[in-house]
Records
---
Amino acid sequence: AQSVSQHNHHVILSEAASLELGCNYSYGGTVNLFWYVQYPGQHLQLLLKYFSGDPLVKGIKGFEAEFIKSKFSFNLRKPSVQWSDTAEYFCAVTGLAPRGGGADGLTFGKGTHLIIQP
Amino acid sequence: DAGITQSPRHKVTETGTPVTLRCHQTENHRYMYWYRQDPGHGLRLIHYSYGVKDTDKGEVSDGYSVSRSKTEDFLLTLESATSSQTSVYFCAIGRTGETDTQYFGPGTRLTVL
C-alpha cells in the first residue's frame, strides 16, 4: 500500500522568507506526484504535478517542486512567500492504474498548515 | 473551475438517518471520486467510479455506498449516519486526457448529531 508523509504539520514564516515543505512517499512502483493547496474555506486546487521527465517542476503562484527518486521525496519550494500563501498544503501520490489509463485515487499526506505573518 | 458542483453544501442530520450527497459534473469525464477530509488525516478516498455503473471501494468505504447511473452524477449514500461520519466530503473528477490528475469540487460539510 502506498503512503505519504508530510514532515511539518504547522509552519509559520514571515513574508519574503523562503519556503520548503517536505513530502516523502512509500510506493513500490512508478508514481505520479502532486501538490494541492487549500485556502481557508475553499476546495483543493492543484499547484503542480510530476509525471515524468524533468524532476524540477514549476507550478502556479511561483511554486516549484523537485522529485528525488532515490529519496522518495517531492518537496515543495517557494523562494519568497506572501501573506496570501497562508493555506493548507497537501502532497499526494497515485500509482499507475491497473485498468490502464485511469487513476484509482490519490493517497494524501496529512497536510501542512502554513501561516505567513505580515 | 472544473465544472463540478456538490449538493447540498451543508447538512446537519441525526444519527441513524440516511443521507445522500450528490456530485454533478458538466464535462462528461469518466472518472469520479469521493473523499472525506478530517483534521489530522488529510483526505481519504471513500469510493471511486471509472464509468457508469462501475465503482470500487477506497480506503475508508465502510458505512458508505455509491451509485453512478449517469456519467454526470456520482452519488454518495450514508445508509445510517453516525457521528464518526461528520466530515467535509469532496468530490473529484479525473479529466479525460490527464486521467491521473484530479480536480475537486467545493465540498459538502456534513454534521451528524
---
Amino acid sequence: AQTVTQSQPEMSVQEAETVTLSCTYDTSESDYYLFWYKQPPSRQMILVIRQEAYKQQNATENRFSVNFQKAAKSFSLKISDSQLGDAAMYFCAYRRNTGNQFYFGTGTSLTVIP
Amino acid sequence: DTEVTQTPKHLVMGMTNKKSLKCEQHMGHRAMYWYKQKAKKPPELMFVYSYEKLSINESVPSRFSPECPNSSLLNLHLHALQPEDSALYLCASSQQVRIYSGNTIYFGEGSWLTVV
C-alpha cells in the first residue's frame, strides 16, 4: 500500500521569508503523480503544484517550487517570499498512474508571522 | 473553469433524519469522489464513481448512500447518522488517469455536517 508521510505537523515562517515543507512517500511503482494541496481556513482544498514522476525537472509555480528526489522518495515544497495568504494546512498527495485513488499525508499547518 | 459546487454549505440534522448532500461539476470529468474530513486531519476517501459507476467503496457504513445520477452530479444520501459522523464532506472530481492533465483532483468547498 502507498503511504505518504509529512513529518512536520506545524511550521511557521516570517512574512517574506522562505519555508520548506517535507513529504516522503512509499511506493513500488515507477510512474505516478505527486501533488501539494493547500487548505486555508475557508476549507476548500486548492491545488498548489503537481509533479509527474517521469519528469526529472522540478515543478515550479510562481513562488512555489518542489524538490523531487525520486530515488529517496522525497517531495518537498518550497514557498518563497511567504505571504500572509499562504497560511493554511498543506497536504502532500500521491496518485498512482492507474486507478482513481489519491493518498494524502497527514498535513502540515503553516503559520505566517507578520 | 475548474469548479466543483457543493450544497448545502452547512447542514444540521438529527439522528433520525434523512438528508442529502449534492455535488455538481461541469468540467467533463468522469471520476467523482466523496471524502470525509475531520478538523486538522487529511481527507478520508469514502466513495469513487468512475463513468457513473461505483468503483470504490472504502467500507463506508450503509447509513451513507452515494448516487451518481449523471456524469455531472453526485449525491450523498444520509440516514440515521451518528454524532461521530459530524465532519466536513468534500466532493471532488478528476479526469481518468492517462488523459493529459487528467491526473489532478479538484475539490469543492465542502459541506459541513453536524449530527445532533
